[in-house]
Amino acid sequence: MIERTPLLNIATHVILVFGLIVILVPIWLAFVAATHTLQTVNTAPVEYWPGDQLWVNLAAAWVQSDFGPKFLNSLFVATGVVIGKVTLACITAFALVFFNFRGRMLIFWMIFITLMLPLEVRIVPTYAVAANALTPFQTIMDWTGISWLITTLSGVEVALEWNLLNSYTGLILPLVATATGTFLYRQFFLTIPDELVEAARMDGAGPLRFLWDVLIPLSKTNIAALATIMFVYAWNQYLWPLLVVTDRANYGMVVVQLSDLIPDQLTTGGGTPTWHLAMAATLAVMLPPILIVILMQRWFVRGLINTDK
Amino acid sequence: MRRAYFKFSWIAAALLAPQLIIIFVFFYWPSAQALYWAFTLEQPWGGGNTWVGFENFRTVLADPYYWGSVRVSVIYALATTVLAMGMALTLAIFVDRQLAGYKAYRVAIIWPYAVAAPAAGLAFQFVFNPGAGIFSYINSVAPGWWDLSKYPWQAVTAIVIAGAWKQVAYSFIFFLAALQSIPRSLTEAAAMDGARPLRRMVDLQLPLLTPTFFFLLVINITDSFTDSFGIVDTLTGGGPFRATDLMVYKIYVDGFRGFDYSGAAAQSIILMLLVMALTFVQFRYVERRVHYT
Amino acid sequence: MQPRLFAVDLGHLEQFSVVHNVPVASNNNGYDGLDSQLLFNTTLHVQHMENIQRWITDGYALVRTPAAGKQARDSFIEGECAIFFSSIADHNTIHKLTPAFAWDVQMIPTYEGTERHNTVVGGASLWVLSGKTDEEYKAAAAYLAFLATPESEEFWVSNTGYIPVTKTGYDALLAKGFYTKQPYVNRDIALKSLTYTEPGPLTRGIRLGSFIQIRAEWLAEVEAALAGQKTMQEALDTAVARGNDHLARFAKTYAGKSFP
Fold first, then answer.
1. How many domains does chain C have?
2. Distance from C-alpha of A8 to C-alpha of A5, rounded to nearest angstrom
């Protein structure tokens, strides 16, 4: 900036360095665990400095978890979620903020409430829906008598079925069905000055043109931040892929593979947790989202996009 | 909400439809089914159920341990939110000053967001380990002072720190994105008027951050109520003697480990009502005071 | 630090009661009906838990759970404690972790003046549910038969540390001299313990609804007692009362049903 502020600058560095230490210590320990043998990791005292086993552990974990195809699956699903989410959240928030209709507060809350009941809590019925995504419509048609009507009129039995288990659609769609993105866009759209919309309308721009020409260019930083978050969110999904995919050879995702390296005390009664392999695998699994985060942050920070702003 | 500009038309309907259909199929339908169980006694391996009205709610609400769970959940949610957002905001504002090396700080603060839950869980097991981790140094001075399996307040502190840690990068990303979208001309004009950096932070940046702040407040609070499962599970398992038995952990354990679907469903309804009430209060009293340009 | 005697994790309810032939619950540990009541606050189990509490206070035993920093097994491997109690699967694990001292495995101890009985299997199970097609049952039967072949059993035993699933499988392994070679020497202590006596009404096993929640109640109360919040007797009384509520609820969920 323009002025000289030496004291404040020192304070800035002190604060930032302190923050960094707090943030990085846990990750450092996980990294160290990946570089030792199982014996070292499982015995106290905890190691604070890396050992020489990183590549050995990585190679072992890579083979044991069949990571090659799993990485492609994860990449595909995460990309699908990002595209779906960024698009869907944008158009939904746009319709909610810029259109005048009754019940838009109601619709906003309907979408918003989906934040409040996590998947862990409704896992069994959600699985049932994934086994046949058209169940809700079938049931409604059965209740309302539409099925009966169709059967009587045309003689065709109504049996809708769309099985999403073991498919990319089944992995992606439910992860898109949350409110975070919509809420973020809404908060951003609310800060758009009235004058801008008025001006666009004076120029005769319809809603879609306004969205495309004015709002989207203005939302770039938000889109980039949201896309980053969603990529990492989708990549690190654990519970949902674990349930929806039984055909892990073809549709397995990397993070789920991690769970095989850490046996659950409660469900299997123990076994050997191979922490060194688990952490090595974790490092490998973390790499793509970290790259995305590092690459994308160039987009949601100023300097590269709007140098002259 | 603000004044709208366009009249409702088929365009708006078409824009809303995809999201509504998806949340209907994947959220409302299954949730409704789960919520139905709250009013029945559901046989865990199929085979039917009995309608019992509000009995499940009466059982849950009459249990003193359940109220303990509500209490610690509220403490956890408030503490993690304040810690995480406070830290994220501070770091974002200072990184935004763009002193030498700020790019390195920025990357270092952002990338932990990509760390998968199991790695973070393990790391914090090390950190809080009374016998071997960082806290063992305290124990070597005062033996037995730090013991997560014995002292409730220590267990709560541990999950709060781990939970807040997990949220810092998230909030930081959005705070920084928002700070970066403040037009430079505005900052320069303020500087020209003689506003020093600290004054600009308070008078210019913070007010412009309020929409983001509000977004993050809501997300962080709902997240700490609904997304604490992994941390509790790896660090404390709900103990010692239920001191860290957060509501969502209890629902998962009762429902999907203990196969009490109905009791868990009743607890889910209560959790959802609580989060909704909190969010509603936030909308009512916080968003009202947020002035958009 | 000098080695303590015991590393204690918190799982001393079921096997302890069975090996001493004392009930965990009425109705022969729940086998005879849904209207069972927990009894473990009235048996030798109470004295045992009070002993554990005393050993901890007097410095003979240490509590070792993940929340306390490490598991009992780690404490044993590091030589911090001389004895720990666990699943036979840990026989395999400890061999892999190769502690720096000679060690061996034994049946769980019984109190002086009591008579040793058989113990029971625990852990994961395979279930075949009703309501499937004949073909599916054929497949299920074929799979179970496959698991019971000597080859599968040997694979299973050498890779998991668990026990063979059939008597024939065990005999086949014995005939091959499987248990005379390291690292399998003495791993069949588990089988000797399981078959020590003929199973009686209290040593067949435990069949209780919501048992996972009952264990959780027991654990939370015992933790409270060990932290000095209440006496062990009070803790076990509370665990039984709360556990009985779970049992009553389970019975109501399956009202009118009975065990096959």
1. 2
2. 6
